[in-house]
Design brief:
The chain is α/β, with parallel strands linked by helices. The chain has two domains: 33 residues; 274 residues, Rossmann fold (3-Layer(aba) Sandwich), CATH 3.40.50.1820. Helix content is 36%, strand content 17%. It contains eight helices and eight strands; from the N terminus they run αβββαβαβαβαβααβα. An eight-stranded mixed β-sheet has the order 1-2-4-3-5-6-7-8, sandwiched between helices. β3, α2 and β4 form a beta-alpha-beta unit. α2 packs parallel to α8. The chain is globular.
Length: 313
């Protein structure tokens, strides 16, 4: 009996040691070692499709980020700037291509950041959940939030290109939609004019009893201030096919609705109820795109109507 217990203790200790070692190695790889593409020389954005790589954080060289851009020939300072946030495939180039014709027709400077991660199939905290927390659950400083990176990119392009715009619009689809609505909720002081969150897989509800990312319990979210931002919840009428994209089916996610269309409606209605209860200013809208499912190209075209009516810079 004693021999069996000793063997069992050794197995438990060995297993714990291996898990601890893997956790330490994983943490160092993800959050300590420098990573990302090589920084490019600082230069102005060229007309047409272009790219540059910059440091993601202002006070650290630990992480770099590639940024795809498209600039129409007719674009000038003070014309609209639109950030386009990719989905879970982290395919910023595809999203940029979907906006080229729209950019030419509407004279928009498109900025499409690429949140590259080799382990994106297994982790979502670094992108659509804003990098508020590490994969291991510890808090990241605000200057390393993914939302802060967007503000840093805006500052960079303003400085390098002598741009005087005071705000930008932002569109995101699927995982990008998650990114956008959470950015509005968690960083309402950002310089967003109009935010469009399209076909998000699930939402961060204004519930102080639910932990992030399902609620705001362990965050410093100012929902009242977030409601003052212009946020459009853009939903596809046919976005009820769970086989498209990555669809979260945890108990807390399923409580929001059986599919993306239902979840978006739930999110909007809960915020509207909160606004009515507190008599808050509420600048959010909800819009359903007819005959459209989980399709970022079609949703992008529908988003243009909201971009056109975005407040001037």
């Amino acid at each position: 009996m004693n021999k069996t217990l000793r063997i069992l203790k050794k197995i438990i200790l060995y297993t714990f040691s291996i898990l601890l070692l893997l956790s330490v190695v994983g943490y160092i790889y993800l959050y300590v070692l420098p990573k990302g593409p090589e920084i490019t020389a600082t230069s102005k954005i060229n007309v047409g499709a272009d790219t540059f790589v910059m440091y993601a954080y202002k006070d650290s060289k630990r992480k770099s980020i590639k940024v795809w851009t498209y600039k129409p020939k007719s674009w000038n300072d003070k014309d609209k700037i639109v950030f386009v946030m990719h989905g879970g495939g982290r395919n910023a180039d595809d999203y940029l291509n979907a906006w080229i014709e729209l950019a030419d027709k509407n004279n928009l400077l498109i900025i499409a950041p690429e949140f590259e991660n080799k382990f994106s199939k297994y982790t979502t905290n670094d992108y659509q959940e804003g990098n508020l927390f590490t994969f291991f659950g510890t808090k990241n400083p605000k200057n390393e939030w993914a939302y802060t990176v967007i503000e840093n990119i805006f500052d960079h392009i303003k400085s390098v290109n002598n741009i005087t715009n005071e705000q930008y619009d932002i569109f995101g689809h699927s995982a990008g939609g998650q990114f956008v609505h959470r950015m509005v909720m968690l960083m309402p002081e950002s310089r967003i004019g109009t935010a469009i969150a399209a076909n998000s897989g699930f939402y961060t509800l204004p519930n102080e009893n639910l932990k992030f990312p399902y609620g705001v319990k362990n965050t410093e979210t100012d929902v009242q201030k977030a409601h003052k931002k212009r946020l459009v919840i853009l939903l596809g009428e046919l976005d009820n096919d769970l086989s498209l994209g990555t669809f979260r089916t945890t108990d807390l996610a399923m409580e929001q609705g059986a599919h993306r269309l239902e979840r978006g409606t739930t999110f909007f209605n809960l915020n509207k109820e909160l606004k009515n209860k507190n008599n808050w200013t509420f600048n959010w809208e909800i819009d359903t795109v007819k005959n459209t499912g989980h399709n970022y190209k079609k949703m992008s075209k529908s988003a243009i109507e909201w971009i056109r009516t975005s407040p001037d810079n």
